[in-house]
Every structure is written in structure tokens, then in C-alpha cells.
Amino acid sequence: MKVLLRNPKRELEIEGPMSVVALLKRLDLNREAVLVIRGDTLVPGDAMLDDSDTVEIRPVISGGGG
Amino acid sequence: MKCRVCREPAVIDVRRQNANYCCEHFLRMCRDQVARAIDEFAMVQPGDRCLVAVSGGKDSLAVWDLLVELGYAADGLYIGLGIGEYSDASRDHARAFASSRGLKLTEIDLRAEYGYDIPTGARTAHRAPCSACGLSKRHIFDKAAIDGGYDVLVTGHNLDDEAAVLFGNVLHWQTEYLGRQLPVLPAQNGFPRKVKPLVRLGERETAAYCVLRGIDYLVDECPMAAGNRHLGYKDALNQIEAVSPGSKFDFYFGFLKRAAGHFRSGAEVDQAELRACARCGAPTPGEVCAFCKLVDQAAQPRTVTVMLNQRGHS
Ligand code: SF4
Ligand SMILES: [Zn+2]
Ligand SMILES: [Zn+2]
Questions:
Q1: Burial B275-286 (b: 16+ CB within 10 A, else e)
Q2: How far is CA B227 from CA A36, A62, B230, B232, in A?
Q3: What's A27's domain CATH number?
């Protein structure tokens, strides 16, 4: 599967099938801090991703204490 | 995973609620949480005119959309901070959202109005960018709300923002801030009423709300934020949340319920001693308000810079 990441923007190729939770674990990402997006909708933690999928992992944490 | 409400396939899990939702019911949950916050803290009354502080990011666009969805009259105000491409992009997102919904968005450009932008102004005034930025935004939003005759100033602060600020204030026992860290500050002493309708939603939820509503927000972060303390606190809280879902909510709402009152008296005395800034009329404890002082330090006429350069000072 193709995985798009931000900060910095990059693209990874990861072999499926794999659940969303397992993917985030593998990338060492906190589930609280990201959304996984496929097309124009979200993919929940237990969804299985396979090699034909393209997903974006989008951070949701905003900075700036002002 | 199935939706808690309709048992259709879910698109998101909200572990803090131990619940999963389909798109429709997730959006409804967000509206319900905002309606409940507004109600619980008497944030907005029917017929109030709201001014929303809009940055083009997920939270400000989500709160604007949610207020309109809930039937409130809400205009937006965008401040051009002059932070390079980030500011250009954030303005474009704010404009696109407003025009797609037929909403009124007012824009104020910091450099055009006050003679500085955040990156250079903060440097000139020897302040951290987020500190100069926060001060500028607070002053300009307050003033715009008062001048525009709005009943209430709305900001997009979410549960994570409030929990992180609380965490920082508790770590350093900033008791005067603790007394004022409330989801509603009443109108007083020349300040507008200020409300945070997103306090019951985490930022993963406000981002999800935007994605599922098709709101095209600016995902990229302000470059000035990188590595600041606020982000460190959020990260620490999310580590705790991951092993103990609901911790951020309990931390913040437990504070409101059981602790905030203990710090209130100090904060109220502070408020009582305010008078009008000699320069701009804004409420301030001193002669000239902190914003006017910042403008003095941050705004440098270009001609002075040129002269200094010619003398080889740089
Ligand atoms: S991160 Fe700092 S400088 Fe950037 S918009 Fe937020 S408060 Fe302003
Ligand atoms: Zn449902
Ligand atoms: Zn002033």
C-alpha cells in the first residue's frame, strides 16, 4: 500500500494486508495524534488495508499557545 | 467496527467515549457536543451576533461551520500575520470557506494596519513569535468584536488546547492564569464576552469533522510553532491518553468542576483594576496597553532600516 505522510511530506510503500492500528504502530504513531484518510473519508482502527490502497496519515495536532 | 447509533460500518472510533460512529452520526455527535457546551456554560444566547476568530485551520473553520449549523448568526475575522507562505495559504482557506458558505469574512492585515508582521516584529521587539502573535491576535479580535457591536467573540480552542494550557499552568502553578482559564469569559471592563464552544471536542475530532464535512482547511502548521512548549504538553497528554482514554477530558472538566473556583478571586481582583489605554482605549492595568507597547517596538519605519544599513550597522 501507498502511505502518504506529512511534516516532512513523504511517501512510503508498505506491504499489506495490515490493519490501520498495526500500520500506526509500525510507524510509531500515536492514534490520538493522527487521522487515516482514504479518498474523501476516514478509515477506522480495525479496517484492513491491502496493497492496492493509498492512505494519507494526517497529523491533527496544532501548535501555537497564543 | 459498527456505529454506536445505527450499527452501520463506522468511519471513526472515539476511544474516550468508547464509541464508534458512521459519518452521519459522528457529525451529529459533534453538533451535540457543541450545543451542550454552549448550553452548559451559557456561551451564546439566541439572537446574539457572533464574531469568529478565523485562521483557516481546522478548529476555526469547524467552529464557524458548527455555529452556523446550529442556527447562530456568525461572521468571521481573519488577521494577516505576515508569516510567509503559511499566511497566504491560511487566508486562501479562510476566504474559500466563507465564500462557499456565503458567510461574511473581514480581513485585517497586521503590516498594513500596524506596521509590522509577526516574524520581523517579534525579532525587532525581542519577543518569542507566539507571544507577540498571541498578544496581537487577542487585542485585534477583542477590538473588532467591540467596534463591530458583536455580542460574543468565538475562538476555536478545543479540548486538547485547553488541557495543554492547563497542564502548563499547573506545572508552573500560574495561579492567576488558572483563575481565568474558563470556556467563557463574561463581557466586562471593555472586553467582549469570549467563548470556546469546542471545549468538549478533541482536536482529532475537529479534524475529523472537517474531513467528513468536506471542509478544506489548511493542514500545514504555522512554521513558528515547531518545538514550542505547548506542542510538548500536547504530546505528553496524548501519551497518557493512549494508555488511559478520557484522561484529557477528566483533567480539564475536573478542573472546571472542582478546582477553577479556588483560583478565581485573584483573577477577579486583576480585572477590577483596569483602565483605558491612553493610546487606544483598550482596557489595561497600566498607562499604555501591552499591545500599543508591542506596536512601538515591533513597527519599524522602513526608512530607518535603510539608513542603518547604509552605515554598515547590519
Ligand atoms: S504558531 Fe505562534 S506564530 Fe504561528 S499563528 Fe500560532 S501563535 Fe501565531
Ligand atoms: Zn450511524
Ligand atoms: Zn493600547
A1: eebeeeebbbee
A2: 24, 12, 8, 7
A3: 3.10.20.30
The residue range of the domain holding A26 is 2-59
Contact B155, B142 (CB under 8 A): no
Does A39 lie at the interface with B, CB-CB under 8 angstroms? no
Measured in whole angstroms, how far is the alpha carbon of residue B2 from the centre of its chain?
A: 33
Closest Cβ opposite residue A64 in set B135, B138, B230: B230
Spatial CA neighbour of B156 closest among B14, B297, B54, B229: B54
Q: What was the pLDDT predicted at B179?
A: 87
* All domains in chain B, ordered by first residue: 39-218+228-313 (3.40.50.620)
B13 interfacial to chain A (CB closer than 8 Å): yes
Between CA B123 and CA B309 the distance in angstroms is 17
Q: Which residue has the cell 463506522?
A: B10
Q: Is residue A65 part of a domain?
A: no
Which residue from B15, B134, B239 is facing A65, i.e. has the nearest CB? B134
Q: Which of B203-217, B222-236, B267-281 has the lowest mean pLDDT?
A: B267-281
Interatomic CA distance for residues B21 and B16, integer angstroms: 13
pLDDT of residue B304: 47
pLDDT one-digit tens code per residue, A21-38: 999 999 999 999 999 999
In a domain, A64, yes or no: no
Counting the structural domains of chain A, the total is 1
CA distance B225 to B246: 26
Parallel, antiparallel or unpaired: strands A10-13 and A41-42: unpaired
